[in-house]
Structures are given as C-alpha cells and as structure tokens.
Write a structure and sequence with these properties.
The protein is mainly alpha-helical. Helix content is 62%, strand content 0%. The protein contains eleven helices and no strands. It has helices at residues 15-23, 29-32, 70-89, 96-103, 108-132, 134-153, 164-177, 179-182, 185-192, 198-224, 230-253. The longest helix is centred in the last third of the chain and has 27 residues, at 198-224. Mean pLDDT is 80; it is low at 29-62.
C-alpha cells in the first residue's frame, strides 16, 4: 500500500496540543495552536524559544521591577526593632546580682518567660500577617514592645521600679511582639528588595537579633555591674526611651509595600 504524501500527515500531538484540544471542544489541537511555534523538544533548551508576550500588552521579555530607596528605611526600622526586642529580653544578663538584690528573683525566670511567649506567638505570625498586612502588624508589635518596656521601667508609676508582677507582664508583651520582627525579614526582602539584594537584607535583619543580645551584655554590664539597684531603674528607662523612639519611627516611616511592583 502506498504511503500518504508527507503534506497530508498530521504532526504528532504534544501534551500541550492535546490539553488545548480537550479544553476547546469541537476543534482539533492543530486548529487552535500555531504549528509554526517551536515547542520544547529533546536537545532544544527551553530558553532558546521565543518569549511569550504577556496579557498586559507589549512584547515579552524579562520583567523589570523598580527599587525604591525607601527599602533601606524599612530594613533599618525592622532591624532596630529586632535589636531592641532582644536587648529588652536579656536586659538583666549584664548585672544579675543587681536584679536579684532589687526583686529577690533570679533574672533567668524572665528570660525563660520571654522565650516561652516568643515561641507561642510564632504560631500566629503567618495568619496575622496575612490578614492585616506587613505595616499594621509591625507597627502593632512595636507598640506592644514599647508598652512592655514602659511597664518594666516603672514609667506608669512615677518612674520608679514597679512591683515584680509588672515586670512579668511587661516581659510577656515584649516576648509576644518579637516574632513580628524576627520572622518578618524574608517577607520584607521579597516585597521591597531586588533578587540580588535579598540575601543581604535578610541577613542584616536577622543578625540584628544577635546584636541585641550583645548589647544587653555590654551595656547592661556597664550600667549594672557592681552598682546599686538605682542603676537598674536608669537602665530600664534608657531601653524604654529607645523603644518609644523606634515606635515613633515605625508609625511615621514604615510602609506596607512599594508604590509599584
């Protein structure tokens, strides 16, 4: 039997043509797909094919994003908040004897409470951020941390050291706020920074937590090492003042996302 001419032989169907024919009943895949469009085949790199144009008009090609200088302000504020939260957590690590003399409690108790509250709050970070957005959750967490620092410093009670139960309450506020600074860097980097900057921005913000711990030991040791309990009041007020300033900067300058992608 004589073979049919090559011009009458239908080209083999690719998976894409078959899927297209199934989605458009009453027409064959060859009717809805340009046979002249090259498809990926063994030995043909996908990158060598012509780019597909998007639905927004204009030719295809690499999509470009505009990077705003505001991204560095975002990174600076979030890093500062992360530093302050760990500084407040380990505030008494530089002078535990001063703390014990004042409150007759081991300062490790508050550190354990902070870490427990921190872990518990981490479970809510994803859902809360998805519902309210980046700016709202970071601003609310900065306010919560500020309230916790003020409670611990005795600012609501004529700037004298408060009762130990307020130290506990303030620590809970600070511990609940920290995950919204500690878990946010990847989200901030993906929203504001270019692909070649994201590793840098994420690492800067994550390392701010370690700087906060180091600050607690260095500054705490300077203020509390071998000094009277009155120094503890001054020390906690300094932390509270820094927290208030960071909260004000967050309210005034922190943004949810860039004006354009």
């Amino acid at each position: 039997q004589e073979a049919p001419p090559l011009s009458r032989v239908s080209p083999p169907r690719s998976g894409l043509r078959t899927l297209l024919a199934q989605q458009l009943p009453g027409s064959s895949a060859s009717d809805n797909f340009d046979a002249s469009l090259p498809l990926a085949a063994p030995g043909v790199p996908v990158g060598s094919l012509p780019p597909l144009s998007g639905g927004g008009g204009g030719g295809g090609g690499e999509e470009k994003f505009h990077l705003y200088p505001q991204r560095w302000t975002q990174l600076g504020i979030l890093s500062l908040l992360a530093l302050l939260s760990d500084w407040a957590c380990f505030a008494t690590a530089g002078g535990p004897s001063t703390w014990t003399t004042q409150f007759h409690h081991n300062p490790e108790e508050l550190i354990d409470l902070f870490l427990f509250t921190n872990v518990l709050s981490c479970f809510f970070f994803t859902d809360v951020t998805r519902i309210f957005g980046l700016r709202k959750v970071v601003t609310a967490a900065a306010g919560m941390m500020t309230v916790g620092c003020l409670l611990r410093s005795g600012a609501p009670s004529d700037f004298f050291l408060p009762a130990y139960n307020l130290e506990i309450l303030g620590t809970i506020f600070i511990g609940a706020a920290q995950p919204f600074f500690q878990c946010t860097p990847p989200l901030l980097s993906g929203t504001w920074f270019g692909q070649d900057e994201r590793a840098l921005s994420t690492s800067v913000c994550l390392n701010a937590n370690q700087l906060g711990i180091a600050t607690a030991f260095v500054v705490g040791g300077f203020f509390l090492g071998g000094r009277t309990p009155d120094a503890l009041d001054e020390y906690l007020l300094i932390i509270s003042g820094c927290s208030v300033a960071a909260f004000g900067a967050t309210v005034a300058l922190f943004r949810d996302r860039p004006p354009t992608p």
